[in-house]
Amino acid sequence: MKSPHARSPVVLLVEDDAGIRRFVRTALESEGCTAHEATALERGRIELASRRPDLLVLDLGLPDGDGMTLLAELRGWSGMPVLVLSARSDEADKVAALDAGADDYLAKPFGVGEFLARVRALLRRALRPAQAAARIAFGDVELDLEQRRVTRAGVPVHLTPIEFRLLSLLAAAAGRVVTQRQLLAGAWGPNHVEHAHYLRVYMAGLRRKLEADPRLPKRILTEPGVGYRLVPEPLSAARTPASAPPAG
Amino acid sequence: MKRASSSAPRIAPSRNYLLAALVVAAVALLGAPLLGQFDLANIAMLFPLAVLFAAIRLGRGPAVFAAFLAVALFDFFFVHPHFTLAVSDLQYLLTFAVLLAVALTTAELAARLRRERDSAEARAQEVAQARLAADSERLRNTLLASLSHDLRTPLTALAGLAESLPLAGPPLPPAQAELAEAIRAEAVRTHALARDLLDLARLQSDTPRLALDWLAVDELVGSALQARGHALREHMLTLDLPEELPLLHADAVLMERVVCNLIDNAIAHTPAGGHITLSAQVGAPPADAPSCTMNPASAPSHAASAGRGSPSDRAADPGPRSGASWLRIRVCDDGCGLPPGREQAIFERFVRAPHPRGPSDAATATGDSGTGLGLAIVHAIMAAHGGSVSAHNRAGGGACFELQLPLPAQPERPPPEDEAGEPTR
To answer: Are the C-beta atoms of B348 and B376 separated by less than 8 Å?
Structure first.
């Protein structure tokens, strides 16, 4: 990875499968990262404390326990980005990991391209925290958090307060998925986390105002069963992988 | 579920009556030598024992029979004059009455106890059976989940190792890069097959688990098209989605799968440059819908009725909030169409329509040559949601797949924003 920093980003990989460790390490090194490995929860805990990596890649199913335990412990003392890997297919597990503080999630099987795209997005945020700035641009849309102003191709766009809050939540996590629960709690408050249909109505409104073709969104993507993801750069760069196997 | 045995004692077989008679006769025989040494009233008290036995072991009918027989035998053998049913002393009538009353009451009480015991047993058995069914369902789900988990990890490693081969050293010569890509594609395809088989098994369990949520149709279609964007790039796509479609209450992941599978199917059977149309509208329930439990066997009738040109010429709107309306989503292509007469067979497992020309290039583009389960999964998912899927050929060539889903009463709209200048649409 062409890091703006002199040192190469340090990534800790906690994964028990040797084959996956091998290719993930190869992929990380090809991006210029330094990869450290742990094969179980206990070792991961030690490595995490001693290496202080820039990114943790965490498998959920480990021989000595659930990766969620480590995630919960880590969130007690660090906000470092965490990419969760899981062989569980249930979307509920994704949501649980994200709500517990994971920054992104990859379900197995995942491809190298998809993996690296997520790693890049997370490291960008970790290594340039100052960039969590007042102005966020995606495509021809510019969002000014301080002035609470949104423009599209230079033209001001009127957003309702809730639309603005939703967009800010998505933009703050740009590139990463935000769960329905997080969006509902952030925009309407904790009493409304079950009202998923509110989101359907408001996301349609946001897309109408911000997408070139709201029926074929390129910026505000739906992650079925999980939440929404704002894509800051053109999709071709994010490279949706061929490895997400199509349904038979 | 009432067991047959619990009602059996009420219509006791004649064998039970015979047994009851034998028991009473045995008591009479036992009492005979005592005649003269014991008071007649004391001998009479032996008979209720026989009735009690009959009531407990043989049921109510034989017990009542035993009670009357006991009185008759007591009168016949023990009461003076012997060996006749005549009674010399009227006080014996009181003995008979008491004997009969005690015997009948005993019979009734014992029979009731027996019935209660039987129904308690039946209940226990029902509970045990329900627990067994729940256990085996749980076992099945655990097995499917762990099988899925155990296949996923090595296949991820296999595909990832093949894909990272070019990253590990100097660029691979083209022939080797091609081999590495072939290994990756095979691993991905194997995973798709395993996943489809496991999903089908899961969907066909008695109670498939659905993560029901409110879904917007345009989001559903949008995310499916997003997922299939790469494979669709050589086809012309037309979207015909009216604004303000009602929300669905369905499993988001499964419904996206349905739309993706239909798109994959259309791509696979339509040559590059072909046209694929995706449309949705609200309409009346399908003609054969009243019993909500659709199956593909019910489809031919609307396949026939829907065999018309453009889907958009259907007037759609009994009002999006009407509870009785259905959503129809159609995926139509102008490819080679369905083999005539096979419009239903294609929803069975491992049935594939022949590809338009040569091996499917579209399927290869998605890294999957099709598992032959795609449409079976569509059907299973629709059935799990109380909906259905049907297919027919279009008059002008090509195939149309139509999904039908019952629309639920719509949820409350979000509260209006008061501090905003304008209401949200």
So the answer is: yes
Chain A (157-186) residues lying within 8 Å, Cβ to Cβ, of chain B: 158, 160-163
How far away is chain B from the Cα of A2, in angstroms, using its nearest Cα? 16
Do B377 and A202 count as a contact with CB atoms less than 8 A apart? no
Asked if the Cβ–Cβ distance from A198 to B193 is below 8 Å, we say: no
Tell me how far apart the alpha carbons of residues A180 and A224 are, in angstroms, rounded to a whole number: 10
Q: For residues A76 and A174, state if they share a domain.
A: no
Q: How far is A112 from chain B (nearest CA, A)?
A: 6
Inter-chain CB pairs, A–B, below 8 Å: 199
Q: For residue B138, is it within any domain?
A: yes
pLDDT of residue A58: 94
* Chain B touched by A241 (CB under 8 Å): no
Amino acid (1-letter code) at residue B75: D
Report the percentage of chain B scoring pLDDT > 90. Answer: 22
pLDDT by residue (tens digit) across B232-257?
Answer: 888 999 999 888 889 999 999 999 99
Range of the domain at B122: 1-209
Residues of A whose CB is below 8 A from B158:
19
B-chain residue closest to A217, CA distance: B222
Write the DSSP symbol of residue B178. H
**Is B411 within the bounds of a domain?**
no
Nearest-CA neighbor of A169 among A192, A140, A203, A197?
A203
- Do B216 and B167 have their domain in common? no
pLDDT at B359 over 60: no
| Residue of chain A whose Cα is closest to the Cα of B242 | A215
- Spell out which residues of chain A touch residue B157, defining contact as CB-CB under 8 Å: 17-20, 22-23
Give ipTM to 2 decimals: 0.83
**A55: containing domain:** 10-130
Q: Examine the domain organization and report whether A143 and A182 are in the same domain.
A: yes
A63 in contact with chain B, both atoms CB, cutoff 8 A? no
CA B108 to mean position of chain CA atoms = 43
Distance of alpha carbon B77 from its chain centroid, rounded? Answer: 66
Query: Does a structural domain hold residue A244?
Result: no
What's the pTM value of the predicted model, to 2 decimals?
0.69
Q: Would residue B420 count as lying in a domain? A: no
Are residues A28 and A118 located together in one domain of the fold?
A: yes
CB A107 within 8 A of CB A241: no
Whole-angstrom Cα distance, residue B23 to residue B29? 10
Across the interface, of A88, A221, A247, the residue whose CB is closest to B261 is A247
Number of domains chain B contains: 2
Q: H or E stretch including B41?
A: helix B40-44
Contact assignment for A215 to B239 by CB distance below 8 Å: yes
The answer to whether residue A226 is domain-embedded is: yes
- Asked if residue B187 belongs to a domain, the reply is yes
